[in-house]
Amino acid sequence: MTLLRDEHLAAAFDHAARSYDTLVAANPGYHAHLRRSARRLGLPRGGEGLRVLDLGCGTGASTGALAEVLPSAEITAVDASAGMLERASAKTWPPNVTFVHAPAERLAEAGVTGPFDAVFAAYLFRNVTDPDAVLRTVHGLLAPGGRLAVHEYTLGGRRTDRAVWTLVCRGVVQPVATLLGDGGLYRHLWRSVVEFDTADRFAHRLEANGFDRVRRLPLPGWQTGITHTFTGRRPTTKETAR
């Protein structure tokens, strides 16, 4: 199958929204890993006085991680899928969390404007048509010195990484998703990962789009070599001028 993109991918997520949290719950460490990535932003004082953008929030798992790690931050959570966003916004949230329906490519049209002190993006970049364009948008939304954390399926480059990913997808995820009527989305999931950047390549992509202090950090458990946190920063104006 070809990869799903733009409105076709959003429609697939709309359809899958009803069962998405059930599948996520079957993934060991899913929520703990998101919280770990949120902590890797390294923001002080629980986010007090800071604005954080959750880009590609889905049904709110990443938003929940941010709200737990940064309870005092102003969190704006955005997703392109109306179905996923409906599920997310129906949950109970503190007043400092706001949801916005918008694709990552058209944030300004939806009124999402910077500066943000941090951007968190979970499972987003392999799903957009032009990841470089979205990274440039994120760079522009961040305040000078603002931080980025990307939590993403990016294979480490070993044959065993791809083999484990394929085994999990084809042996567990895809059969269950097919029974739920969402097989196409989860076949896309497998292919989107194997055709996307390796972890090293994505780290270089961040640097090429203006981020400094880029780090590639592994996650534990079965996802070692499959899922990584990437952190980076928009340089300050003074540093850029050097």
Automatic annotation (TrEMBL):
InterPro entries in the record: Methyltransf_25, SAM-dependent_MTases_sf
Biological process, per Gene Ontology: methylation
Domain of life of the organism encoding this protein: Bacteria
Molecular function GO labels: methyltransferase activity
SUPFAM superfamilies for the chain: S-adenosyl-L-methionine-dependent methyltransferases
Domain Methyltransferase: 52-146
Keywords attached to this entry: Methyltransferase, Transferase
Protein name: Methyltransferase domain-containing protein
Gene source species: Streptomyces cellulosae
Taxonomic path: Bacteria, Bacillati, Actinomycetota, Actinomycetes, Kitasatosporales
